Amino acid sequence: MKTKLVIILLMSLIVFGCSKNESDETDERQVMKHHELRPFYHFTPPKNWMNDPNGMVYYDGTYHLFYQYYPNGVNWGPMHWAHATSTDLFHWKDKGTKLYPDELGYIFSGSAVVDKNNTAGFKSNADAPLVAIFTHHQNFGGLQQQSLAFSTDKGTTWVKYSGNPVLKNPGITDFRDPKVIWYEPMNKWIMVLAAGNKIKIYSSQNLKDWNFESDFGENLGYHGGVWECPDLFELTDSKGVRKWALLVSIGGGESSEPNGGSSTQYFIGSFNGKTFTEENQEVLWADYGVDNYAGVSWSDIPEKDGRRIFMGWMSNWVYAGSTPSIGWRGAMTVAREVKLAETNGKYTLHFPLLNEINALKDAQQTSTGSTPMNGLDLNNNEIVGTGSYLVEMEIDATLTDDFEISMGNELEKMIISYSKVNAEFVVDRSNSGVTDFSPMFKRPIKCKFIPQSSKIFLQLLVDKSSLEIFINKGEKVMTTLFFPKYEYRFLEVNSKSGKDFLRTYTISALNKSIIRQ
Prior knowledge:
Layout: E1 15-16, H1 25-30, E2 35-36, E3 48-59, E4 62-70, E5 80-86, E6 92-99, E7 106-114, E8 130-137, E9 144-151, E10 159-160, E11 176-183, E12 188-195, E13 198-204, E14 211-216, E15 225-236, E16 242-252, E17 263-271, E18 276-278, E19 284-285, E20 293-297, E21 308-313, E22 328-329, E23 336-343, E24 346-350, E25 366-369, E26 376-378, H2 382-386, E27 388-396, E28 402-408, E29 413-419, E30 424-428, E31 445-448, E32 455-463, E33 466-471, E34 476-481, E35 490-494, E36 502-509
Parallel strand pairs: 3-22
Antiparallel strand pairs: 1-2, 3-4, 4-5, 5-6, 7-8, 8-9, 9-10, 11-12, 12-13, 13-14, 15-16, 16-17, 17-18, 17-19, 20-21, 21-23, 23-24, 25-36, 26-35, 27-32, 27-36, 28-29, 28-35, 29-30, 30-31, 32-33, 33-34
């Protein structure tokens, strides 16, 4: 939750239009007259302002997503929690605003849990209480304290706890964004809380009374901005090795790593119920793109599912207040799984696409190539023209030292390139459409990548005005926005090698069965 900006305009998916020349067939075909660039399969608010995902909890077959919301305009304002639900993480139902500002302040970011053992004493019927833990932020003076709200009807209605705040401010300017988990070995709740340039860890038996345990992060990791929106969870890799991961968002400026602006780093290590101990010796990033911030994971996903699922806010604080918009602002990334992976003794996190994405593919709008080829040229393509599609391709890295993927129209295009010499992917959106609202928006976005085998498997997830690149099933991810004025109609893949480096490809439209509710 960003507090330094008074008026911030979030990323928007704007209505672009132009006057129609009835004799000009090109304009009729390409110009997106009166067409909102609202995504099909990414979550967006019905109207007005949205930023951080909050209170992500799973209960009784339903994924709950709360989010920072200002219901009275498209600019940042006094924060509320609005609510949406889904059974598959792609079809969302709007549930309205649930938590409103009060005498203690605005409702800033936080988390939610299922209190299965009724430790807080809120249970009133057969349903386990849902408990939200959030930051109260006073508008004047900026005092930040932690408070509770609870629901006894599966998240339909919420009541703020009469004893708020449950964790008072110890005299710290930035003291916010509580993430609470149940720590089974000690039968207690754990809270990780962003406090300036570090994370504070607290514990509780009942969610109401909190004890300080330890600090983490001073002189560790990256400190190019204030730390925000932490998350803490345990993962097990394919060999049964267990590690803890701590995610921390950083509200940095234009010169911040890895590519400028706000970003999310993570730490791999161990946790004993009191302290987190880092094992990685280098800074690790959850996303090398510039438009994935404040992401956290869902709590209480059943053991039989076994996944850790993550979602972030798709924007960047450097230019969020300058992007064009009309009527509403904000989008989330697609939900992604988080996996623990080991390579040459080094543990990292991978963020692969969820299998649920396959249910969105339109079999009637799918194109494939199953034999090696020296490139791909899909011009004036119907699937690309939908604006919402998934491209999957396998590159033979032994047959080319570089390749380029471009998508766009006669006037605009996005370019994704790879160089073996530089060992990096680069996204160039300098000519992708509207870019003049921020100098940083035109800068190249880079991601170091050295293939561990001869194959590079790429997934490009395009949805109207966003591009998410998954390299080798989430080994590296790059999330970026773009704002085209005209409908993108082509997709090309090229290499200077002249060899059949493109082994296979599939492109599928992903707007099938999406219904806004």
